[in-house]
Amino acid sequence: MKSLSVLVAVAALVAKVSAHYTWPQLIVGGTNTSSWQYVRETNNWQDLNPMTDVSSVDVRCYTSEESGTASTMSVAAGSTVGFTVDGNPSNLYHPGVLNVYMAQAPAGTDVASWDGSGTVWFKIYQISAVTDGGTSITFPATGLTQVTFPIPSETPSGQYLIRIEHIALHVASSFGGAQFYIACAQVEVTNGGTGTPGPLVEFPGEYTGNEPGILIDIYYPIPTSYTQPGPPVWPASGASSPPPVSTTSNAHTTAPTTSTATKVTSTSTASAPSGTGAAQYAQCGGQGFAGPSTCVSPYTCTVVNQYYSQCL
Ligand SMILES: *[C@@H]1O[C@H](CO)[C@@H](O)[C@H](O)[C@H]1NC(C)=O
Ligand SMILES: [Cu+2]
């Protein structure tokens, strides 16, 4: 009995120390593709270790493969794609936040031989931390075994890198302590829109390591707020998925059917079974949240607490 509990304690300790992960598979059409088939094989594909030096070129795609063996997957603008988590264990074990960026390969350049350099990256998705003024901080990305998100329908057709990063913050209270788990997939966006993605940022360059969301003690004192690293998500919330004006929404007066971004988010949401809305596990409501309040089919916007509703 005693030795068992010691074993469990030791196992927990080991798991805590060695719990790292990678993003080997691109998810397209709900299907997991093969490992490192469309995702560039990262330098940590075997040891699973994070990278921590945000000034290193590794912060871009965490790979030395600038013209590697990955193939390029065709994906429609507006469709949902994602990445699987593989590791020990195979989930986003550490508390942290998540960002997804895209960058279009220059005209005439095959994305498969493009290194992603330049001020070319825009953010399309994030899962931040949830704070409530100092009594708790939670990380909704924790425990995910896969992360899915829509390619904005406004994205112009063309070849892109999609870069996912989980920033683990469990030892982030000293400079260089935050752990970056990064990978890039190669896609060709079809049926694209006419948007102008931005703001554009550069990797390395976007992070110094001193950001309040990267150099942070998440334990004590409990942060009263959290600032998500990186630029805002494109397109600006509200513009991306205007709530479909239901024709059945009867004869009110001529309600101010706002044509654009001014949308007040309510926490209770009828999950319209449409192709638009927030992705599985994404935030879809909560106090102060101004993003899409619907979820992509078949997920439902579920109230987790006052501050956070999630597509489940
Ligand atoms: C895809 O991979 C994820 C992460 O490993 C796993 O949780 C999920 O069950 C897989 N999906 C399918 C359809 O195999
Ligand atoms: Cu780890």
Automatic annotation (TrEMBL):
**GO MF, one annotated term:** cellulose binding
Q: Does the keyword Signal apply?
A: yes
InterPro entries with a match to the protein in the record: AA9, AA9_LPMO, CBD, CBD_sf
Q: Which UniProt keywords apply?
A: Carbohydrate metabolism, Cellulose degradation, Copper, Disulfide bond, Metal-binding, Monooxygenase, Oxidoreductase, Polysaccharide degradation, Secreted, Signal
Tell me the leader sequence span. Answer: 1-19
Pfam family example for this protein? AA9
Ranges for the region named Disordered are 231-277
Question: In which domain of life is the source organism classified?
Answer: Eukaryota
Give the CBM1 domain ranges: 276-312
List the EC numbers from the record: 1.14.99.56
Cellular localisation: Secreted
Task: From the UniProt record, list the reaction(s) this protein catalyses.
Answer: [(1->4)-beta-D-glucosyl]n+m + reduced acceptor + O2 = 4-dehydro-beta-D-glucosyl-[(1->4)-beta-D-glucosyl]n-1 + [(1->4)-beta-D-glucosyl]m + acceptor + H2O
Name the enzyme group at the top EC level. oxidoreductase
Q: Which SMART domains match?
A: fCBD
Q: Which cofactor does it need?
A: Cu(2+)
- Which is a GO BP term held by this UniProt record? cellulose catabolic process
For this UniProt entry, what's an example GO CC term? Answer: extracellular region
Cite the record's Low complexity compositional bias ranges: 235-277
| Membership in a protein family | Belongs to the polysaccharide monooxygenase AA9 family.
**PANTHER family (alphabetical):** ENDO-BETA-1,4-GLUCANASE D (PTHR33353:SF10), PUTATIVE (AFU_ORTHOLOGUE AFUA_1G12560)-RELATED (PTHR33353)
The protein's name: lytic cellulose monooxygenase (C4-dehydrogenating)
Species in which this protein is naturally found: Mycena venus
Upper lineage is: Eukaryota, Fungi, Dikarya, Basidiomycota, Agaricomycotina
